[in-house]
Amino acid sequence: MDYSTRNIDDAFFEASKMVNLVSKSDDEINQEERTWIAQSTYDNFKNHINKGFLEYRKSVTETEGIALTDWSGQGSILKDVLGREFIDMLGGFGLYSPGIRHPKIVAAAQAQLERSPQYSQEMLDPLRAHLAKVIAKLTPGDIQYGFFANSGTEAVDGAMKLAKMYTGKNGFISTIRAFHGKSLGALSLMGKAVYREPVGRLLDGVRHVPFGDADAVEEQIKSAIEVGDGIAAVIAEPIQGEAGAIVPPDDYWPKLRKICDKYGVLLIADEVQTGFGRTGTLFGVDHWNVAPDIMCFGKALGGGVIAMSGFFASAKIWKVLELNPFMHTTTTGGNPIACAAALAQISVLLEEDLAGQAKEKGAYIQSKLAEIQKQYPDVLSDVTGKGLLLGMVFTDDETGFEVVSGLFKRGILISGTLNNSRVVRIEPALNIPYELIDKFLVELKDVIKNI
């Protein structure tokens, strides 16, 4: 097919066809239409998204017949367009902390959609202001002001910009194997060469140290001062997610706080993946009772319903944005539907004690994995993480892939981590039922036994 020629009639036909299908109830979509959706999705990825995904995704490489095509889900169960079911142990990389389509979150978003899907850009919008107040009450220390965006990457970029404006300095200290996003700013903080090198030169002044080593942070700050380089902030994930659910030593975050105070450097906590109950506390830094200067949020903030992120700071730091509030803006960030979903997500988080559930269920899974590890130490070498941000460390990359592939063929969706291929993440909804956890554990043990 020739894609070099504009065809407005075809564009209208294709857009209308999919809108009509999406508008039908599942009962109204016949088998022929379902098959068309699956097959055309494969072709459209190949021709219009990225052919590389088709070589990477298990939904293509590990599926006999028609590739799996995302279609619907509820709680911790996903269905493809042909009705094939999967237990979701991946949780959308942390999006689905309250589960897929939590009724209270969906209802809040729908109610706001009926009223106004976006804001006027001129009138004061109540939901955004109220959500900021709620988050200010939820966060540690003197966090008071915030800005909402759409992705975790935007939140990190905004935090970097704020830190530079407040301190008047350009440098940052990040960590090896860190994951903070893939825009040019956030990518500069990334601690993995495979994503950095193909892009070429990134932001100057970013230094990387081993995660969990506070002394190395202090040495870098001292060395920067010695040569006249200014460090605006130290940024870290409370628990490194994509590096493999790596938990730092217990004195790490308290020491970072003292070091940053000592040298007048800001401390940024990237809570995009660890925030809102994921690790068994409201925020990851709560494990060590540390209050950062700036906090970044994303993923679960929108309740798995609407894309939502934000960065928050104290009034003292935020003051640099007050003289010209248009220094940092976005047209769609913090829109009313996203804010309604986020407010409902926080209500669900607290009503259902999702953090407590994550702590309890995470400990349960870790205890069962310890038994499996004891039986098969030459396959499963370690278990990392806290709450329901867990990593299964396998002896090599190939073994990890075999486990993921084996579970996928048994109807369980799970995936590796982006910055450490040996580690397979366990990151389900925080309210996942124990019966699904047990099903996963039974299948996991059987896959490892076969390996």
UniProtKB/TrEMBL annotation:
Coiled coil region boundaries: none
Documented EC number(s): 2.6.1.82
Any one Gene Ontology molecular-function term assigned to this protein's record: putrescine--2-oxoglutarate transaminase activity
Cofactor: pyridoxal 5'-phosphate
Gene Ontology biological process terms in this record: putrescine catabolic process
Keyword annotations of the record: Aminotransferase, Pyridoxal phosphate, Transferase
Similarity comment: family membership: Belongs to the class-III pyridoxal-phosphate-dependent aminotransferase family.
Name recorded for this polypeptide: Putrescine aminotransferase
Lineage summary: Bacteria, Pseudomonadati, Pseudomonadota, Gammaproteobacteria, Vibrionales
